[in-house]
Write a structure and sequence with these properties.
heterodimer, A: 415 residues, mainly alpha, 18 helices, B: 168 residues, Rossmann fold, five-stranded parallel beta sheet, 38% helix, 18% strand, globular
């Protein structure tokens, strides 16, 4: 099949798959759409069977790593970690919405870094919402904080974001080296958010609340915390002992899951659902589709546009372009397109890509202009959230966050 | 007289106290709380941004609504106790300013508190929500300061008119 035709077809399939994932029609799951698209591209010869197989084999360990992390997060929820965290927040915040925001920032950043952005959005956000409601304060700044930090704080560790896992697999960098290079950029991105939030929500945050009854000292679930701590220690030591981090994730997932199975706190079916097999399949299908596009000229185009040196202007350009692409097509496809190119260019460019695809999605709040516009089209009457408000908040935080994080990454690379 | 007392989280005590003082004994009082659905929508929208993930059963939007409903009921109950008079309790959800104006349509008077800057007298003492309600309310309004009203000295002195060009 001619390259240009194959590329056009691959891009159409990619657009259709993303369309299904955004629109979520009840009759077609995104996993099915991605797999169907991938199979179609193999059948018409836009991507060879061996290349498709290689793409799946290449993504396999990353997807397995993700499944293990999802199981650990779900286990933490089961053990009551998130409820305990809510109690910590309520107790620490007392009567001050500003302190509640500070607690929400710290906890959302920690949950995102350790348990990934999914855990923050899916498991932590409802807890923060409930804490704000019980405190009788407006939940909006705190919910916004969760959504923004789920992106901004997801720079720190390879496990914080699927995009990081994909890049981590593509470059030969130890877990600790990754974290050491990304700690300053993470602090910068979160710091920019903090300043912007304090300014943006000044009126909401200035009102002191009447102090209610102080909630009892929360009991942190020791078992879940111990499993998390040991898993993290395993990650940190992985390069020293010469064992891949994915095995520590698997061990952590087993440790937190098996006891729940034995005491029947969870059924096997629930656990399988907890790993989100549909999502994992979607990632694999998407990987093959992007491979078809890349192999037929998309990677050449990306290489032509993207600078590849480790100089500061180049890193800034990479982060900016990655952020734009992440907002146009969502950050997952953007990572699949960009990482193979920037990984070949070295550590600096690939980490700058991650800054772009992780911090960038805050520009359109939900990570993709398509998602945003589609939701507006679907819910024309649903005007309880001002579109302008989250675009303004994004415009306030994202460019500054990108620049600050990239400059600090560049500094860290010089050391 | 049908009176609507709109309470919000941080100023409800003062609003209820003033309503008890200034509304006539025979007033037919309705205590209103409107829960903004904004934060719930934001939380749900963030989940939709996670491409390809099916929302797990325990993380659906319903629990958020239940939490917000419960908080509203609790607030209304506390306000009712503080009022110490018979009253109808009304909980609404949606875009706050529109809901308040709609609820005020069948009323003779609306009691509400300033929701903006309380440190100085001036237009900023009304936030966007109360500003909309004051501008659009289809009835009389009793607008209260949640605490003691700021001193007159908080009004900035009038600016001197610009110097006129010399006339020939």
């Amino acid at each position: 099949m001619a390259d240009a035709l194959a590329l056009a077809l691959a891009l159409v399939v990619l657009a259709a798959t993303l369309g299904v994932a955004v629109a979520r029609p009840p009759y077609l799951s995104e996993a099915l759409a991605a797999c169907g698209g991938a199979i179609l591209l193999v059948i018409v010869g836009a991507v060879g069977l061996s290349a498709a197989g290689a793409a799946v084999r290449d993504l396999g360990p990353t997807v397995g790593f993700l499944a293990a992390m999802l199981l650990i997060a779900e286990g933490c929820r089961r053990e009551g970690l998130f409820d305990a965290v809510g109690a910590v927040m309520a107790r620490g915040a007392g009567a001050s919405p500003r302190r509640l925001l500070a607690f929400a920032f710290v906890i959302a950043a920690a949950v995102t870094a350790v348990l990934s952005l999914d855990a923050t959005i899916v498991l932590l956000t409802p807890v923060v919402f409930a804490t704000a409601a019980r405190m009788c304060t407006h939940a909006k700044p705190h919910v916004y904080a969760c959504a923004h930090l789920a992106n901004s704080a997801s720079l720190l560790l390879p496990v914080s974001n699927l995009t990081n896992l994909l890049a981590f697999h593509a470059i030969k960098l130890s877990f600790t080296r990754f974290a050491a290079l990304m700690v300053l950029p993470t602090i910068a991105a979160v710091g920019v958010e903090w300043v912007a939030f304090r300014h943006f929500f000044a009126v909401d945050l200035q009102r002191p609340r009447k102090a209610g009854t102080r909630p009892a000292r929360p009991e942190l679930p020791r078992f879940a915390v111990a499993v998390l701590a040991l898993t993290l220690a395993g990650f940190a030591l992985s390069s020293v002992v010469g064992i891949q981090p994915v095995w520590f994730a698997a061990a952590g997932a087993g440790a937190i899951t098996v006891p729940a199975l034995i005491r029947r706190a969870a059924t096997p079916l629930e656990l399988v659902r907890g790993t989100e097999p549909g999502f994992l399949t979607f990632v694999l299908g998407l990987g093959v589709i992007v491979q078809a596009a890349s192999g037929n000229g998309l990677d050449t185009a990306v290489r032509a546009v993207l600078p590849t040196s480790g100089s500061l202007p180049d890193l800034l350009a990479i982060a900016g372009l990655s952020a734009i692409l992440a907002n146009l097509v969502n950050n997952l496809p953007a990572t699949l397109m960009l990482v193979p190119v920037t990984a070949a260019a070295g550590t600096g460019p690939v980490l700058a890509t991650l800054i772009g695809v992780n911090v960038g999605p805050n520009l359109t709040y939900v990570g993709s202009l398509a998602t945003l516009l589609w939701r507006r089209v679907l819910h024309t009457e649903d005007t309880d959230v001002e579109l302008g408000e989250f675009l303004r908040l994004g415009a306030l935080t994202v460019p500054a966050g990108l620049v600050a994080a990239t400059v600090l990454l560049w500094l860290a690379l010089q050391a | 007289m049908r009176a609507l007392v709109w309470i919000i989280e941080d100023t409800w005590e003062a609003t209820v106290t003033e309503a008890a003082v200034f509304l006539p004994r025979d007033a037919d009082i309705t205590l209103l709380h409107v829960a903004s659905t904004e934060a719930e929508t934001l939380a749900t929208a963030a989940r939709h941004g996670l491409l390809g993930r099916q929302p797990p059963a325990h993380a659906a939007a319903e629990p958020l609504r239940a939490i917000s409903d419960q908080a509203a009921q609790q607030l209304l109950a506390e306000a009712h106790t503080r009022l110490g008079r018979p009253a109808t309790l009304q909980a609404r959800r949606g875009r706050v300013e529109h809901e308040v104006v709609a609820a005020a349509a069948s009323m003779d008077i609306l009691v509400l508190a300033r929701d903006g800057d309380r440190a100085r007298l001036g237009p900023r003492s009304l936030g966007p929500t109360a500003r909309f309600v004051v501008d659009h309310a289809p009835c009389r309004i009793l607008l209260i300061w949640p605490d003691v009203a700021p001193a007159l000295t908080t009004i900035p002195p009038p600016r001197l008119p610009p110097p006129r060009p010399p006339t020939r």
